[in-house]
């Protein structure tokens, strides 16, 4: 089934496909298309400006052979004024080009970033299991900046330079073809050198950009894991890993700089030698009277005017190569198949965290959402469900095999099993974070595989043991669990999760920003907000993965009392490790060896099933 489907890991850098930079860059066309008219106009303006610089030598020729040779001051002033005008026109046109491209190119970058973000949100969880977050972040930041630089400079100027060099060459050949040939002599060796440079620089750029991704991952982990790093005194080893990566990145950047220096030396030196040769040859021809001084001045001025277009080609090629690498990296993510539909509230938001009622406030007062969507029969049924993680060794048995379990409508089922037995994995199948590799799951008789993800997530809410809070207010974090939730829904959900007290005590109550990852709250407080998020939408099905593990016994009892009332109308599957959580449930299912080994009440299983008894005893707790 779809979700666990083919998501590839980040590309193996030792085995990257080699294809031309042009082929990579052509893929940017759909993003460039909407601004092609502006870019085309800007390119024409730049070509015009660049070609003006080629007219200046012709005016010089006229000045030297005409007014200067004829000692005509009026003509010299006229020529000077004309040169000034040409210079002004060139500057104005280059300014106009910049103005034409600035806004549309910022728009292209924003559109690409938005497309990437949207796509990443739609990628299956299996993709995120494999891709380090830093690699995704660097693709959305540094790589896109490189692309904007490419659109601004190389994309236009490689064309402008090409046209300028072509027009200049025609002018040179027209003036004196023998001298023109001397200037063209370096072209074949330069073309060979440029193609070698492109291949080598492309590899170095790819390595450096991947290393930026690795570095981003380490920085992100160090910031998020700062408590662990400090708690275990790991700052030195963490700093060592960071240094190692920065050193590797520096080595790659130096390699890029060496390659660039090498090509710039070639691109600068060979044409200079050719200009020197043409100067000597031209001077001899002027001395022999075969060539006018004005023509030689014009010829050399044209050749010098072509120096910048030729020399800047080295930089432009380097930037184009980096852009090609950035394009490859961008499309490695964009080419990943997304799940078939966009989620409406993000993975955690759509799959709500949390649930129940507090002291007399009943989440179950109103009918659960989605109740009208089905006749309300059937409950949650697993039939012959098999699951294997995509990256599991091919010869390993499936993690879950032939899981068959019926949770009746309105029933609360606890799921118990040894650590690593697959409880979290089984619960993740219900909100379709993953899809089973065989078998089927039905919600009130409707096959989960036939429901869209949005439909499934409208019916199902989840709270995980590790609660994720977003950098938003406490209220916003909770209301993420439902579309158009009101303040009354918020209060009810907070009451169920026993979160009212501490939320009201926050400096700005439920309007307090709880900070990135909710770091300003305790683990138990975060769990309760996540629980409130799960119940706020009154889901028809509730999946709780040990959501009370961080609570003290007293608070846990209060939350459970509220939950019991709230769950009266909800079909729930609760992963439980402690007898206190199990007591919340009507029945208990024991997951063992990838199968449901036993189902019964807590007391029945305690009596009849030694494995369950061990798990629920102190030995079971310590075995965790
Ligand atoms: N994304 C993943 N990719 C590959 N294997 C995974 C992935 N997530 C979990 N596993 C493996 O699947 C097995 C079951 O993990 P799961 O988290 O479902 O167990 P659990 O019963 O919930 O454990 P616990 O009680 O410790 O939370 C483990 O061996 C784990 O290493």
From TrEMBL:
Protein name, UniProt field: ABC transporter ATP-binding protein
Major localization listed first in the record, in broad terms: membrane
Topology class, membrane: Multi-pass membrane protein
Keywords: ATP-binding, Membrane, Nucleotide-binding, Transmembrane, Transmembrane helix
Domain ABC transmembrane type-1: 42-322
Annotated InterPro entries: AAA+_ATPase, ABC1_TM_dom, ABC1_TM_sf, ABC_transporter-like_ATP-bd, ABC_transporter-like_CS, P-loop_NTPase, Type_1_exporter
ABC transporter domain location: 380-618
Organism: Streptomyces mooreae
Annotated transmembrane regions: 39-64, 76-96, 146-171, 177-197, 259-281
One Pfam family, short name: ABC_membrane
Family matches, as Gene3D superfamilies: ABC transporter type 1, transmembrane domain, P-loop containing nucleotide triphosphate hydrolases
UniProt-annotated location(s): Cell membrane
Single GO MF descriptor: ATP binding
Upper taxonomic lineage: Bacteria, Bacillati, Actinomycetota, Actinomycetes, Kitasatosporales
